[in-house]
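SAMPLE LOG
Freezer: B-3
Tube label: C17
Construct: single chain, 370 aa
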Amino acid sequence: MLAPTSGAIGSTTVKLSAWGWSPFFQQRFEQLGDPSLVPARVVRVDRGAARLVTEAGQRRATGTVRRSSGEDGSDGPSIWAVGDWCAVTPGHEADPVRVEAILPRRSHFLRKAAGRAVGAQLVAANIDLVFVVTDLAADFNTRRLERLMTLTWDGGARPVVVLNKADLCDQLDRRRLQAEAVAAGTSVLVTSALDMQGLDELHATIGAGATVAFIGSSGVGKSALINGLLGRQRLRTGSVRSRDGRGTHTTSSGQLIRLPTGGILVDTPGMREVAMWAGEAALGATFSEIDELAVDCRFGDCTHQSEPGCAVRLAVEQGAVPAARLASFHKLHRELLSEARRRDEHLRRQHERKTYAHYRRCARLKRGMS
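STRUCTURE (predicted):
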């Protein structure tokens, strides 16, 4: 069964390949083995409802999802995200479509849910690149960059650091060097949405058919950069508070936006906190110089804290690795381990509750049979 790649309503033709449809998703769609279903991509999520693009145009979807791949650690089968590819039952043109399944995700951007809740928030799915956006004035923070890059690597996408608002920075070279020092070989681009600086580099980085998510704090200029790439004021932009330099939320829900020159952009709400939800391998990608030095440590399970023969601490003592960089590595590592323990405890309690409920049901059935 081959899914169509284009279709029409009236005079409007939609090519799913222009929205990122590829052989990867084609194969997963065919494995469902249901000829009544059609592929669709989630282009907007707002308050539990979604807008999808199909070969026949855009459609609404509400309710829950019947099947999900469950491969990304999100909180259940009913969760969809901007960028997801789905299999839907189309139904009547005026009615919402029914989402039968979310296709397995090629990549995703996850962060820990806000507050004390144990769980992940799925921000975007099936993304190729993540533009980790920070501004060169009030928001600049290399520790935050490390967190966002770790989450990006963990989800299977490639990060690109974007230093925006160059027009407001009087120490541009210093800031760029600071960003490059923690970017671990990742590209660092300097932009200014106000005077269009660096937009050509952003365009060149985005390949045709690639999906690129803009991730960062409120007020760093994500929406303004997207408007600059589009060449028009598609998204509302906000001001920055003078008392603390923090931005205000102008994007309240994620959405996909197609570039006229090819490529798909993902505008996401600003993040005021970046709690970790990732594996240790992603930490090694962000702190690659520490990962490489660890090979020469005397002990294979060296924690780079007090063990003799630690090549990482030797590099810090010799000035090859900044002490603040190693301290940040330790902090994120402790946070990841702590969250993993909380997840394990949460799952254990869930299992105990389900087991207890099962035994109670069995006891009631036995009493009814006697």
